[in-house]
Predict the 3D structure of the following.
Amino acid sequence: MVTFEEIKNNENIKNYITEADKSLTALGFTEHSFAHVGRVGAVAEYVLETLGYPKHDIELVLIAAYLHDIGNLVNRVDHSQSGAVMAFRILDELDMPAKDIATVVTAIGNHDEGTGVAVNPVAAALILGDKTDVRRSRVRNPDPLTFDIHDRVNYSVISSDVKINDEKTEIVLFLERDTHYGSVMDYFEIFMGRMLLCRKAADRLGLKFGLVINGTSVM
């Protein structure tokens, strides 16, 4: 089996992630580099581990999380599909079993709103990890006076946390926001599609999805 550690320590893959993020920097996007893929992997791992999925599935979701945004190297448009094709080539050359490649590629190809579908538990966990990564440190623009709406919404988030309740019936994204930088309506203007995809991903795992902002349940 190809392990997550092998993928994480692969210099070629590190270069793909770095260069893909440079492309997004040039386009004015928030951070999509190692901090992002690390957080996505941590949340996805937490979800599957908490719900009792096998260690093998957890290993696959960590790999999918690490590779999920390399398609931005090609173009931001349809990056989930191009990233899936790139991941297939990488994993095939590393002799990963076909069944495992299929799971990882399917998850990557379905992680983005608009085209993504939580077709299996690994894909669902990847979606939840990716779409709940909202934080101040993702903003690269140093001047608040020139923030666009994505900068404002991310910068407004002082803290974020994802929790599954003890009964394992609900997963909730808790956000603490400084409303000086953006309103709740700003958040929903750009993230509604993501939150709806999270709801579908949670449903695939037998959970309900909730969103709590500054102590108030809004979804």
